[in-house]
Amino acid sequence: MSAAVGYSQIPVMRPQLPTTADLVPFLQEIDQNRYYSNHGPLYRRFARELDQSANFPVSSSILVGNATQGLTSVLRVRGLAGRPYCALPAWSFVASAAAVVEAGMQPYFVDVEEDTWAYSPLALRDMPLDKLAAVMVVAPFGQSVPLQEWDEWSSLTGIPVIIDAAAGFDFVVQELEAYPNLTTVVSLHATKTLSSGEGGWLIDFNKDVLRNALADGNFGYLDGAIGQTFGHNYKMSEYHAAVGLASLQSWDMTRRRFAERFNKMVEALEPLPLSVFPNPSKPFFISSTFHITTEMPADFLASELLKRGVLTRQWWGEGIHRLKAYAHFPRGDLSMTNKISPYILGLPFSVDMTDGEIERVRDAIAEAFYVHAMT
Ligand SMILES: *Cc1c(COP(=O)(O)O)cnc(C)c1O
């Protein structure tokens, strides 16, 4: 098979944020307000509308520059002093572990389950709990995690639980309730489903936690006074809030388009011997990524697809624990992560992928299976 001469390449992701025309009314408001950052009117409106979209009580969240900053802030605010570790799944994006290190803790990598790609409190049964400053639970590619169970576990152990639902806007809006022991962070990055370009949505139903997280991301300003606590600059600007507000306006349509294209992909791939994540036969939440697992190593499949103009990505590589910068951190048994991750590949996916592109992806995978069987 020769290289895909004459074909355009199909990108692995093609985000679509609000257009210039969608943004104009919001930008004009900024012109009027002459307020450009520092928790201005658009910031406050965006936070309020997000809370409303999820049916949260008023003022249940703050907005930050990105999800990594939100995770870092809340780990600083809620993490138990004098304890070294934050448990987190090895199967996640590197940002989860980066936030742990930035908050002054050591990542302790834990394994995930084969079907959910996440872990439950059971996975921590052999951990030295008295060494845990916090636990981070990752909602993999926006799919659900047992929130109620984690809330109860946190209440029982006194250990804070932070949900990294970076790709999970849909999940959070539909499933998160006012759990008293959980903090949840959603990414509003351009590659996620609801976006402000860059941004993070930090949700907590405890007013003190929110107040302290806000101070952590605003130079330590607490109740109008500076210097009572350390602080950083994690603020979301009015311009990012404008993009977020415009995105929120068309959320229902974005959601429908993702779901419709997801179903189309599933239908096209149906004849092939592969499994799709999220599992389409179970309730799932929309995601901006589309994953398959096959018997072919992901790097083999990726190179075969590349020859056919289909770009792919191993979004989480083979786990954070394998990355050089994280190789020295402690971990439990990671046999499931090590077993499944080399076979997982992210396919091209976007709200406006054409039927023709989906067919090309399917045909390229079918050819890769053929090549694999021949070698
Ligand atoms: C995207 C992502 C992040 C980082 O979010 P940012 O807003 O880009 O900082 C963190 N964790 C997971 C699981 C992600 O998918």
UniProtKB/TrEMBL annotation:
SUPFAM superfamilies: PLP-dependent transferases. GO terms for biological process: polysaccharide biosynthetic process. The keyword Transferase applies. The active site is at K192. It is an enzyme of class 2 (transferase). GO terms for molecular function: pyridoxal phosphate binding; UDP-4-amino-4-deoxy-L-arabinose aminotransferase. The modification N6-(pyridoxal phosphate)lysine is found at K192. Keywords: Aminotransferase, Pyridoxal phosphate, Transferase. Its EC number is 2.6.1.87. Belongs to the DegT/DnrJ/EryC1 family. PANTHER family: PROTEIN RV3402C, TRANSAMINASE. This is UDP-4-amino-4-deoxy-L-arabinose--oxoglutarate aminotransferase. The gene is arnB.
